[in-house]
Every structure is written in C-alpha cells, then in structure tokens.
Queue: 3 jobs
Job 1
Amino acid sequence: MSFMQALRTRWHQADSLVCVGLDPEPAKFPAQFAHDPDAVFNFCRAIVDATAPYVCSFKPQIAHFAALGAEDALQRLIAHAHAAHPGIPVILDSKRGDIGSTAQHYASEAFDRYAADAVTVNPYLGRDSVQPFLDRADRGVVILCRTSNPGAGDLQDLAIDGRPLYQHVADKVAHEWNTHGNCALVVGATWPQQLREVRMIVGDVPFLVPGVGAQGGDVEAVVTNAKTADGTGLIVSSSRAILYASNGPDFAQAAAAAAKSLRDGINRHR
Ligand SMILES: O=c1ccn([C@@H]2O[C@H](COP(=O)(O)O)[C@@H](O)[C@H]2O)c(=O)[nH]1
C-alpha cells in the first residue's frame, strides 16, 4: 500500500490525525534506562507500542539518532513499527536537500536503508533536487513550506512577484511537482493564518503540522484553518509533550494519555 493510501486509511480507521514524533534525548529518559546500552531503542519502542492506538503516523527525527550514533536503533525502530503496527506509516524527518545525483542517495537512505514510508525534504535547491524522492511514487515526499520556528519568515516570507516564497512553494508542489500524488507539505502549527492561506492554494494536499505541544501551537486554530472538507488532511505532530509527559516508571502510560488527549482535542474541532 502506498504512503498516501496508508495515511488515509489510518486517518479513518484510527479516527486520528495525531503523529507521534520520536526525538530521543537520553537525558530526559526515566531512570530505568540509565544503564541500558540499548536505551534509545527500548525507550522509543515503548512509546511506539503505547501510543499506536491513538496515531495516524510516527515521525522519527534523524538528528536525534545520528547525534548519538544510534542509526542502528533508528533502523530497528522503524522495522519494529512496521512489524508490530502494520498500517501505521512512518515519516522519517530528515529534511534532505542536495543536487540530484546526491539526492538519489538521500532517497535511498530514507526508503531503502530505513524503510520509511515518507520523508521530509527541503525544496530550496529546486525540482531536480526533489525529483529522486518524487519518483518513488509509493512513498510520501513531505516538503518544507512554512516551518514552525520563530525565524521561519526570514526567507520563507520574502515577496516574489507579490507573493511570499512559501506560497510559491505550495503552488509549485501542488500543481507541478505532485504528478504521482505523493506530496505533502510542512506547515507549522504556530502560524494559523499561513495554514489557512496554504490550504486555499493546495486543495487536499496533506499537511504535516509540527508545533503543537512544546512549541505552543493552538490545536483548535490548526484544525479550523487547515482541515480539508472531509475533516482530515492533517498530520499533527507532537514530540516532547508526548515523549516526556512523565519521566517516571509510568512514562509509556503518560505518553499514551498525552497522545489520546491530543487526538480527542483535535477531533473536537474536525
Ligand atoms: O517546521 C518544522 C519542521 C519540523 N519540526 C520537527 O518536529 C518536531 C517538533 O518537536 P516538538 O517537541 O513537538 O516541538 C522536531 O523533531 C522538529 O525537528 C518542527 O518542529 N518544525
């Protein structure tokens, strides 16, 4: 099943638009992992298993693994998610972008090495840099559009032909690059007005929406501004607020409760 089919199926079957972000930070792990040589994998696996009933996807962030030399844990974690929770797509957040000949290797890294169902990509180098990802029609290509961070507007808001750059990205992705129907866009939860503007431009193209939880984005504003007509279209991602809801022995249950609470909060406004 393609990423887009799996996502749509999961939205409906789990009645959830929640994505749990997997951003391991060992200093925040509960004490029980202090002497565990495989702590990154074991912590993340417990989170995946506890939160699976409440999510439409998982989103491991590659830097959190690579900085620890834990690429092997990332590979095993994605394999575990697929085996234990079939039908829940995994989005590798790696924000890759390079010339085409190198981008081919980044696409292979995400889809062949890690077996991710989708990957985040930086569009700054232009279409040929994204093409190796777009060509994998069964996998999702989640392209940065208007990011959630405070400095997002420094470049993304620069006006070109009377429109901010992020609107050009949205337009190009939706109307030129999405020939296989496998594109999605990153639009931060911290920018409700931009969420609405991008939705107006791109129709039903899905949004990956980071920025609720630790970054303070407003769930109601996200849903009302960015949902599609059928009340879906969103992958609302939260990492720290779920992963570190408790640092006690109940960490997995606390994460599950936080994921369920986010799901229910979103669904109240769909
Ligand atoms: O615009 C963006 C794009 C990606 N991210 C990533 O999402 C998570 C957010 O973590 P929280 O703990 O929920 O704040 C993190 O992995 C970022 O790299 C983003 O925040 N904004």
Job 2
Amino acid sequence: MLAYQLSEAPFDTIAHDLRSHGICILPKALPLDVLEALQARLAQLSQHDFNEAGIGRSSDHEKNRTIRRDKIHWLDDSDPLEAKLLAHMQEMQDFLNRRLFMGLFSYECHFAHYQVGDFYKKHLDAFKGRTNRVLTTVLYLNPDWQAEDGGELVIYAPDDHERELMRVKPEFGTFVTFLSDEYPHEVLPAKQSRFSVAGWFRVNDSINGHIDPPR
Ligand SMILES: O=C(O)CCC(=O)C(=O)O
Ligand SMILES: [Fe+2]
C-alpha cells in the first residue's frame, strides 16, 4: 500500500474528540498490519460467508430491505486474521476506559459489504436506555475510493436529525467513532462494491435483566 502513514497517537485523538464532541473521524487510524490482515481475510471470504443484515429484532425481510441492504459477516477470535482487529479494539477499549472512565465491557463487530446500489437509511445505532451499545465504530477498507463512487456516510446533528453535519468518504483506513445513541447517520447508495467493519462497544447492564437485540 503506497503512502500509508499511521496518524500520530490515534487513541489519544479519539479520546480527545469523544470527550469534546462525542464523535471522531480519523483518516489512517489503524496500524497497516491490522488493515492488511482484514484485507487478507476479505480475500478468503466468499459471498456465502456473508448474510443479510437485520434491524434489531425484526425478521421482516421485505421491511428490512427498505432500510438496509448490506450483507454482513461477524468477526470472531477463532480466525487469526479477524483476531488481529479484535485485539486492537481491546487495546482501544482499555485505553478509553482508563482515559474517559467509559466502563466499556465488550466489543462486537462485523464486516459489511455494500454491493452496487446498496444503502442504509438514516438511523440511530442505539436508543437511550434501551440497549447496552454505547460507542459505534466504523472502519473502511476501500483502497482508491473515488468521489463518484458514492457510498458516503452522512452524519446528522444530535439535536436536529434533519441537519447534516458531515459526509465521510469510505476510504481505506478511515475510522469513525461516535456515541451510538446520539448521532443519526445513513449510508448513501454505493456505486462500487464497498467494504467496512462496523462495530460497537458495549457496557455490561445484564444486571438490569435487559435482553439486547440479538445479532
Ligand atoms: O458503513 C457505514 O458507513 C455505517 C454503517 C452503519 O451505520 C451500521 O452498520 O450501523
Ligand atoms: Fe449505524
């Protein structure tokens, strides 16, 4: 990969931006060896390893398809390439807990593949008090993404869900982090095959007897 220079102290920047804004958009935010492991893993996976994504508990296939079209593959420690990212995210979790006392307890993530025409309509990843997902992460894995390839992540204001704050190009190594119950967002239709890893840090509120939406 040409001209990949890791940003300086990404965890530090993420913690700083989360504290001041609840959101951080950082290009070149992950070590190249982690990104290369993910690319190598994607090259091993076939379409059969990806499943249609659901919406919360809904199993209404047609309704789900009006909201999101991506296909997903959950990452798991048992695969050594996937384990590299999970180990890195564990480091991030420990860092954020030390720095911001966030009480993050676990992390789950999936590859997402948006084929040409696929989108994800405006949504929140969590509803206040209804989930233990507190922090969303999205990592993009698309070398040479062009402006005309579409597929931007559009982020809206927490206090006005109609007001667009920013558009993020899904470029290789760009890493987005935001408070899951604050920022509405959507994925515009992709005009090229678009790969990412979407993930969530959770707090442990099982003592409240919550049953979180199943995967
Ligand atoms: O891929 C993206 O840019 C965002 C995906 C997303 O919003 C999600 O999976 O919840
Ligand atoms: Fe989302």
Job 3
Amino acid sequence: MDHAADAHRTDLMTITRFVLNEQSKHPESRGDFTILLSHIVLGCKFVCSAVNKAGLAKLIGLAGETNVQGEEQKKLDVLSNEVFIKALVSSGRTCILVSEEDEEATFVEPSKRGKYCVVFDPLDGSSNIDCGVSIGTIFGIYMIKDGGEPELEDVLQPGKNMIAAGYCMYGSSCTLVLSAGRGVNGFTLDPSLGEFILTHPDIKIPKKGKIYSVNEGNAKNWDGPTAKYVEKCKFPKDGSAPKSLRYIGSMVADVHRTLLYGGIFLYPADKKSPNGKLRVLYEVFPMSFLMEQAGGQAFTGKQRALDLVPKKIHERSPIFLGSYDDVEEIKALYAAEEQK
Ligand SMILES: O=P(O)(O)OC[C@H]1O[C@](O)(COP(=O)(O)O)[C@@H](O)[C@@H]1O
Ligand SMILES: [Mg+2]
Ligand SMILES: [Mg+2]
C-alpha cells in the first residue's frame, strides 16, 4: 500500500488549517497574513459562484442591461473587481490595492489600514467568459516598509520582494494555488462544503516538458529568438519528439497546465507590442513567483522576471515561464542573439 498517498487521502486539510499550521511555525506572527488570506479566499469563492452562473445571467438580463428585478447586470470583470476590493479592504490588513481594472492604485483609508499591499487581476482571461472556458483571479502580496506611510513605491518593487502569490482558476473545478515562499500548494473547492481542500501538496514542475503554449497567430511579428525557439519545438533537430501545442488564452489556465504537466508558456514581445501584453505586477510577477517556487524559471527575454523593477503599476513585459530546462533553452537563444 502507498502509505503517503493513503495519509493524504485520509487527512482532509482545509486551506484555513494549512495556513494556521504554517503560522504556528512563526511564533512572532500575529495572524494578520492568515486573516488577509481568508478574505482573498472569500473573494475567490464569491467570484467562483458568479462565474458558475455566468451563462444563466443571459436569461435574466445581459451584462450592461437591467434584469427582471430592474437591477443592472454587472460585467463579470467589473463585479469581480468590486468583490475583491471589498474583501481586501474589509480584512483590515491592506493599505494599497492595485487592480487591473482600476487606472489608479487604491489607498485604503487609515482606519481600515494594515501592512499588506495586494496587486491583482480580478478576472483573467475575460475573452473566454462567454464560451465557458476556464478563467481565473491572480494575486501577489507585498508588505510595506515598517512604520511608514504607504506610498506607491511600496508596490513598485521587484517581484522577488513579494511575500506571497497565487491564483484561483474557475474551471471544471475551482482550484486555488498558493505560495508564501515555501513551496507551492494547490487546493480544490468542495462546493458542497464551501471549503478549499489541499489536493495538490508541494507542487513541483517537471524539469522538462512536452508542451509549448503561445499565441502563434502573432508569429509574423516575433523576434528572432522566439521564432527560433518555436521552430525548435515543432522541428527538433536533436532527435527528440516535437512538443505539443496547447493554448487556452487565459493565462491562469495556461500557467496552471504548465505547472502541473511541465513545458513552457510564452507571451513574447512582438513588433506591434514591444513590451508584450501581460502586466508585470499582477500577471507576470505572481506567476513567475509560483514557477520559481515550484522549481521552474521565468525570464523576460533580458533578465530573470522577478528582478524587474516596475516603474508604473500597469507596466507590461514579455514573459517566458515554465520547466527549468525549457526556459534554459530560450535563455540560450536570447543570449546568442545578444552576442551578434
Ligand atoms: O488573446 P491573446 O493575445 O493570446 O492574449 C491572451 C492573454 O490575455 C489575457 O487574457 C489577458 O488577461 P485579461 O483577460 O485579464 O485582460 C491573458 O489571460 C492571456 O494569457
Ligand atoms: Mg489577465
Ligand atoms: Mg483581467
């Protein structure tokens, strides 16, 4: 009998107990992070429930219209943003919030302030909402400098300074993947209990994968190293098998598959978008943080992604992330290009 697997089956670990266990390893901790996280979890459950009803919303009124009760239907990304802002402010543990949906950062009023800054994409993959394909929420957490007044500089920090990051994927199941800097763990929502249960303990990405994931429709505008890399995936010259292509078009879902199965996810720069498409603070950093924690790598085409120092809250960057060996290959191609 596989005792490890058996123990895992019988030990029902909820996300709350998991985080409390982690907290107890730090006697100085006052539980602020646990409280913040419980509010993030609440936001995820709320959005999950709204996503599950998204198709039905058409029956009672389309987004932007009024439903039969005369209430205005909110677009799912607007609704998700409001849910997370409320959940985070009411935790009493946050001071600065940066959301993809808001042009400016939100500074929490002093009476409700705490020491954490949260950057988030409340609904990632929004083009997939109407066809029922997996979408998600991405978040990263920084801590402000001790005692100081919160300033924008507190979030304009390199990703390596994040103290935690994660995402929740609203797919065939609702899965929350989290790292607080000591490995990566995945929890699946049991809808009947309303609890996230540890289902993917200590996730490690395979060292090399068989899948590449990129929007190949942009190929005509790629730079040399990206084009060469994708060519190598399809027509390897070293006798290995070609990689398979999988591309969902929701970063959360594409990165989740990459984390579990291995391989590489690319959103490169191209002639039309020299900085790529994905946003540094709440897309590139949290996913890069998770990848490194799981044993993979994340690279911008120039440097380790987590070393980037963003100058603006909605800054973008190219990103290549995934299995260690696969990212190593693309790094070599960019290094060779620089030598030219
Ligand atoms: O359609 P494209 O250009 O391939 O872009 C897909 C990417 O855009 C995104 O949908 C952007 O995220 P938002 O939906 O939060 O704007 C990512 O999830 C995804 O990786
Ligand atoms: Mg997004
Ligand atoms: Mg979004």
